[in-house]
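#onboarding

Welcome to the new folks! Below is a worked example of what a typical request in this channel looks like: someone posts a single protein sequence, and someone else replies with the predicted structure as tokens. Don't worry about understanding the tokens yet, we'll cover that in week two.

Example request:
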Amino acid sequence: MDEAKLERFGTLVRQRRLELGLTQDQVAAAGGPSDKRQTQIEKGASPAPSITTQAKVDTGLQWTPGSAAATLRGGTPTKLEDEPAITEEDVDRAVALALALERTGVTQVGTRGAHRNANGRLSNEVIDQLIELLNSLPPAHRTAE
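Example response:
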């Protein structure tokens, strides 16, 4: 991984820890990486944190899931307290998607490369397109068991 990205990530990790007023031991106790690994991360040292370590960073620093990964790619972490509230429109969209999936018998949808919003979730536009696509398919024919 690019050295500059690791250094930037380490700086943001340290800033967030200090913003929360936590020691590395306290971050570790809150589900974050060990204090030794945190020191390496904060210094921007290789290797890049594993997926498991990234998830621990999210937990220990009270970032939304996927924030560490997004930050390593050059994005910005989302603090849990900054997470947008779920709206009635979001609920309606999720229900419509679930109904479309059930109606067509689709159990998995590949979304690699799909547009995502800042917190790593599929964008509303992508979800709406999935619903439209699924609703254009014929219903699944189920046999009674």
